[in-house]
Amino acid sequence: MTINGDTEGDINGISNGINKGVIKGLLFDFSGTLFRIESTESWLRAVLDEAGLALPDSEFTATAAALHTVGALPGGPTAHVEVPAHLAELVAVRDMDADRHRAAYTGLARQVPLPDERLYDALYDRQLRPEAWLPYPDAADVLSGLRERGIPVAVVSNIGWDPRPVFVAHGLDAYVDAYVLSYRHGVQKPDPRLFAAACEALGVAPGDALMVGDDRRADGGASALGCAVHFVDHLPVDARPDALRPVLRLVG
């Protein structure tokens, strides 16, 4: 089992045709689309520093690599992750509520030995903080461009916590009209009900909405509702400077 199904390959034909100028509402995924979580090394270093702990360089490197391998960093890349059997059921529904989200990720992290048991919760808490996230370089321009065009925006995310403080800290909250979050609705993408709730929040019909995301399985679920879908790659911030900009061309 993989965390998000990325290893299953692209779903051919998942996007509906996008006709320029007919899009009246935008739905954006959060992690890997508008924002990217810090690297595993930065994540681990910040938590160790805050706890007043240090690891020898070789041990630090090995520990960060092990945390990456097990997919312990929420919002990080997961296509490579094989979830152990005892966590598979929990991980599959981790975004349904806040408690399961924390339990899933601290469970994954506990596969890696750390020098203090308290670090597992500290690692989880670190990813809730705005400083752990960076917006993609073109996110502000695209969101402000949509606002100038009068096109409402919803963030539709499989997540176990409220990302609004991240948007506020980075100056992007003013461009978001609605946050539709799995843990508040009790359903996860690709369930069409989450996309339907987002369209309703924006006051647009699904056929007039465009979903932009990085996960072809989860975000591609919007197509079942009649939304157009546009995919970007989940890459580090400095490796993806302008993948969101085509959205402005699509809306005219």
From TrEMBL:
Molecular function GO labels: hydrolase activity
UniProt keywords, alphabetically: Hydrolase
Species: Streptomyces antnestii
Keyword Cell inner membrane found: no
InterPro entries (alphabetical): HAD-like_sf, HAD-SF_hydro_IA, HAD_sf
Protein's name in the database: HAD family hydrolase
Gene3D superfamilies associated with the record: HAD superfamily/HAD-like
